[in-house]
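Record type: monomer structure entry
Structure origin: computed from sequence
Chain ID: A
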Amino acid sequence: MILEHRGQRPVIPASAYVSPSATLCGAVVLGERARILHGAVLTAEDGEVRLGSDVVVMENALIRGRSRHLTRIGDAVLVGPHAHVNGAIVEDEVFIATGASLFPGAVAGRGCELRINSVLHVNSRLPSGAVVPIGWIAAGDPATPFAPDRHDDLWRVQEGLDFPGTVYGVPRGTSMRTIMSRQTEFYGAHIDDRDVDR
């Protein structure tokens, strides 16, 4: 499905393939030979999503662009099934495995590997060629990988990265009622989306 959102339409070069069951919404710009597979969603909420050439976005992956955190994916990148790239920069030749997540303000340097179910936290920078092991969380600038059982060590880095401020624009401790009131208003802009003929 190809949708116009906030007055912006996806740009799809003739060399690209978009599965009939994938969704491209708003200011999404695909590079040459991009392949968007079944169930993938690329949505430019209020900021652009831009893919380089020879990028494959596999089944059920989510790529989201935001005004404060545009999403840029370089050339020769694999975004695995069920992966989540939200407001992040992904440089060339990065491997993002099944279920990996990159959050707003994150940067994955050239040639990185984010293995199955790994996380690159908000405002964290993974140096070129770095590897985040299966299920680990990388946080900081430069990012340090933490095993899932090192929560206290991770929190010492993570707290200063300001997840609620970065993602929701609110201070830590803001009630979920306030956050969700703002989120429902923000995502309400999709009510006006329009199907676009290819």
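Annotation 1: Residues 66 and 117 are 23 Å apart (CA to CA).
Annotation 2: Helices lie at 151-158, 163-168, 176-187.
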